[in-house]
């Protein structure tokens, strides 16, 4: 589209704010103008478009189908403009949206994110925890932290943060109920947390026992190491956990790791983002920080 065919920037800004906030008055407050001025700019935009963008009802403003189709594209355009301007100024500003697995968020990231905010006070981090995959094309997410084997789809860049090795852990009180856990087979005398997890079979094979020794009985499935660790600390069973994440619990004795053998399936927690956005200031500073901070606190990590 030619530049002279674009609607006035003031009208587009008014529409974007009103669509995002769902209210003309709040949009006016954000833009430092009046509700009447926002309403006037949007009316101009609707005249240019030849169709209503909002349904105006008493005490309620709602986007029309045309407005709903336009709003995310306008917001994305303003975000791209802001990122380009930030890159021009040489700084990281705005909002960084990080989508991460609950385990990594609870076990490491939430404990260290404050250090990042201290060195990047102009960049606000919004943390989203989920176990589903992220689609960068349709979701407003800057970077994701997920478990992967490193074979990323074309167009994505990734950096290994922490390898996901694993070993059985439990509370010392639970171990004491059978006189202590002295050999791997003793684990079968205790309840397992999520025995259907493939890590159990892999660990037992690595420890010299057949995987089919695991009992086939109903057991809790929690979907996240973070929750399994809480259950293990409470004495509800033996959990298969990544030792790197539970150094503090192992040191203070709330968890014990009875055997040195640690399994590995070749996967790890990876930082992933679109390759084309590699040099955006907010992604660059977060990438450099997290890889350095993981190396400092855990002694392992990926490479830039």
From TrEMBL:
Source organism per UniProt: Aminobacter aminovorans (Chelatobacter heintzii)
One family name in Pfam for this protein: LysR_substrate
Protein family (similarity comment): Belongs to the LysR transcriptional regulatory family.
This protein's UniProt keywords: DNA-binding, Transcription, Transcription regulation
Organism superkingdom: Bacteria
GO BP term (any one): DNA-templated transcription
Domain HTH lysR-type: 7-64
Highest classification ranks of the organism: Bacteria, Pseudomonadati, Pseudomonadota, Alphaproteobacteria, Hyphomicrobiales
Entry protein name: LysR family glycine cleavage system transcriptional activator
Keyword Transport attached: no
Cited PANTHER family: GLYCINE CLEAVAGE SYSTEM TRANSCRIPTIONAL ACTIVATOR (PTHR30537:SF26), HTH-TYPE TRANSCRIPTIONAL REGULATOR (PTHR30537)
Gene Ontology MF: a single term: sequence-specific DNA binding
CDD domains: PBP2_GcdR_TrpI_HvrB_AmpR_like
């Amino acid at each position: 589209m030619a530049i002279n065919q674009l609607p006035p920037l003031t009208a587009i800004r008014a529409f974007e704010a009103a669509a995002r906030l769902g209210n003309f008055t709040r949009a006016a407050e954000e833009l430092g103008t009046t509700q009447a001025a926002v309403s006037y700019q949007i009316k101009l935009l609707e005249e240019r478009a030849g169709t209503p963008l909002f349904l105006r009802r008493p005490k309620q403003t709602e986007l029309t189908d045309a407005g709903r189709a336009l709003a995310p594209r306008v917001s994305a355009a303003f975000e791209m403009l802001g990122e380009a301007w930030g890159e021009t100024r040489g700084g990281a500003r705005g909002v960084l949206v990080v989508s991460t697995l609950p385990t990594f968020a609870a076990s490491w990231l939430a404990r260290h994110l404050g250090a990042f905010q201290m060195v990047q006070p102009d960049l606000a981090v919004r943390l989203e925890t989920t176990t589903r995959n992220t689609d960068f094309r349709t979701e407003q997410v800057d970077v994701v932290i997920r478990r992967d084997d490193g074979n990323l789809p074309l167009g994505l860049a990734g950096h290994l943060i922490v390898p996901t090795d694993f070993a059985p852990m439990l509370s010392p009180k639970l171990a004491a109920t059978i006189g202590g856990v002295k050999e791997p087979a003793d684990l079968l005398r205790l309840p397992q947390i999520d025995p259907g997890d493939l890590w159990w079979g892999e660990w037992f094979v690595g420890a010299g026992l057949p995987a089919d020794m695991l009992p086939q009985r109903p057991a809790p499935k929690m979907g996240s190491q973070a929750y399994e660790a809480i259950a293990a600390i409470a004495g509800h069973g033996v959990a298969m956990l990544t030792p790197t994440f539970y150094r503090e619990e192992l040191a203070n004795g709330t968890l014990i790791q009875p055997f040195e053998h640690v399994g590995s399936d070749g996967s790890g927690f990876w930082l992933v983002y679109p390759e084309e956005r590699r040099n955006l200031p907010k992604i660059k500073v977060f990438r450099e920080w997290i890889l350095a901070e993981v190396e400092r606190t855990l002694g392992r990590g990926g490479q830039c």
